[in-house]
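By way of example, we now present a protein record of this kind:
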Amino acid sequence: MNNDTSKRKKREIENAVKIISTPVTAENIAFIARELILCTLPHSDPGTVPAWSRTNGNLALTIRPGWNREKKEVYGYPYGIIPRLILVWIVTEIIRTKNRRLELGNRLSDFLIKLGLDPSRGGECSDARRVREQMDRLFRSTISFEYVCDDMERSAWLDMQIAPEGEFWWSKKTPDQLSIFRTFGSWIEVGEKFFQAVMSTPCPLDIRVLRHIKDSSLGIDLYTILNREAFRAMKDEKPRFLAWEWLHDQTGNEYKRLDLFRRDALVQIEAILAVHPGLLISIQRGYRGQKSGLVISNLSTPSIPSDLLREPIQGEVNRTPPALVLLPPPPPKLPPPEKMLKPGTVARFSALYPNLDPYACKAAFDVWVAGLPPDQRPRHYDRVFLSFAKRWIVGKMVVNNG
């Protein structure tokens, strides 16, 4: 492991400890539409195909790119991390303002900061160019939801644009430049059908979890899915089962092989569990004709407690919405580990939790200890470590061999 990777890992561990040790507040709430959880956007560019589709049972999402009149070619498909962050921002703004018209600001750089992106980065791959390109792709596409049942005898569909109206007065080359039409600014107006769908069934998310997994579009999708399933399991008081094949269809059909999708999904799920301790998941292996997949316990809890949703944040038009993702902070100065674990302690941990890494727990423990006042730091390092491990393992993945 090189030095940069080691520093990044330490920052991730420190961030995870802060999230799980700090209660969520109303300021941390963001939203996504239910339909955008049931079927998700592409992870990579589908290319020049005339239409792209993803299915989830009887529900299908189809995207057709809009036409670029100036270049006399299609805009292309919205894909990857950026359109997902844009959609979370849009849905959160709709819930906050209860308005179809959303003000984007007079400068592109201001909107980039709202998404947690870097307006100072220049060149062909600048965040400004990427955001403008993905906004054009997202807003000019036609998105269709279709539900088919009874062996194609009955069907229902909805064809819509996310934002059929809008005005951009931004410069991609100089995102800090104020619009020459400063009194107007840039804005979009979301479609009536999309607005009604958002207002009827918004799904709350913890903005801090999104920040933690923001570098993976698959991670964002899995978090929204698993968080919703945790709510359903808790509400119905029954575990929820998600077969790998279903998850692959719902959010990963770009993967040609199911085992490759499962491999990458497990990496992202581990990252989610590190900051979502209320999510209790076990892995069910396939046997005797039973599918393999994930079991979400009915003891799971969603990211946002229901009592927080009763607070009047939706009506506070002047409330500043949370930035979706934070700009990378400077590397924290972490103290060196005070002690090494005794071999017996490592063996004890491995016997109790055979599928978990004792040194990952130790890294989190060292961060926790460093935050304590000097007079409260443990004298019996290994004993307190094992006590800390009982809390640390909550929400970590276990394997069900049955």
Q: What stands out?
A: The mean pLDDT is 83. The chain has two domains: 3-315, 343-400. The radius of gyration is 23 Å.
